[in-house]
Predict the 3D structure of the following.
Amino acid sequence: MQVRHAEDDLATSPSKAGLLLTVMALSAAVSNAAVGLVAEKTKHKMLILQLLLLSGGISTMLLSFYKTYDHLVVYMIVYGISLGYTSLVSVISVNMVGIQDSTDALAAVTLYTVSMMIGPPVAGFQFVCETWILYVTAFTVV
């Protein structure tokens, strides 16, 4: 969505617009490593998770106000950092249910991960093919 917005609305070249995804991926990779290191040294893992989710949500809510390419770069960095929550999900799940039921917690995390891998391509396929106006399939099948 951000790439198309950069190309269509901000008249950015396709290669420069595609760079936005690279910026997000790099910030997400750094964030996952940093969040893992910080969470290892603190007891406030849940607070870190909540702050990361909040920052991603707020930055996405403000997306319609970003009017320049530089704003989108900042958004992609902030959103990429907020994706660091993924490194905490399994750790917090095991902490919540205890080590005895850790297999159940990790099974739930795996189910969550699989749905995160299948849902976006289904929605993207529907968007590209314009087969459905509503993206019901992406949210109900997965």
Remarks:
- Residues 14-41 form the longest helix (28 residues).
- The chain has a mean pLDDT of 80.
